[in-house]
């Protein structure tokens, strides 16, 4: 039996598959295109904003584009090299500015192609940086938002993290990429350890471990509590007699015992030492390999023996 560490856990977002959508300039929310819980595709429009700074940048871009087109039409035989370079630099700077403020290349190209000064109204759309589910959208229409304000959070829940916090002595037994089992109700999901935090929690003095779990059916959601079993290092493995947990009972004096078959249908209590528990299995010492033990119904056998003698057939 390998060293198995059990601990409570909590499903959390996979930060490597999560993005936040924020404005880069002061803006006002004009329209929302998605809602909380919606699945979005990469590049999908999420929200329309309006910004005075963006309007100024859009106007400057149209002016720079017009000037660059003019000097290109005149040609290098008519336009000086300095004017040609100046027009190119002004265009690139104006394009870079509207891009830095939040317009995508596709939106910029559409604005230039239309060439309509009335389109330089400061409106632009923020697009989804990845596919996933919208799990946060704390804004309302008409709200003024500052640069860096989190308008939406998107996460890919197909591979989610489970965070378990372990005492330092147990966390030392765990290595990256080892197997783990996450239990949700009656369902067990296979996973593996992807992160071990090096800094302890200031309050609990525990070490966080992140387990990545495939979650195609969205059985796990951030904030959900689960139980985890993590496989320890190979050198921590032990050998012994492994029996179902239900096979081991406490005797009257508090010692651990199992019921062994001495003859067909005849049983007696045998004291054992409990070495380790791993889920629904336990490792014991005190009986020889090949011994037949009661795996189910041990409590019933114990009760009958306590009544003063027990012989049972066909059970």
UniProtKB/TrEMBL annotation:
Gene3D superfamilies documented for this protein: 2.40.30.170, 2.40.420.20, 2.40.50.100
Keywords: Transport
NCBIfam families: RND_mfp
Domain CusB-like beta-barrel: 160-232
Start and end residues of each CzcB-like C-terminal circularly permuted SH3-like domain: 241-301
UniProt organism field: Candidatus Tenderia electrophaga
GO molecular function list: transition metal ion binding; transmembrane transporter activity
Highest taxon of source: Bacteria
Membrane-crossing residue ranges in chain numbering: none
Name by which UniProt lists this protein: RND transporter
Domain CzcB-like barrel-sandwich hybrid span(s) in chain numbering: 17-156
An example Gene Ontology CC term for this record: outer membrane-bounded periplasmic space
Family recorded in the similarity comment: Belongs to the membrane fusion protein (MFP) (TC 8.A.1) family.
A Pfam family the protein falls into: Beta-barrel_RND_2
One GO process term, biological-process aspect: copper ion export
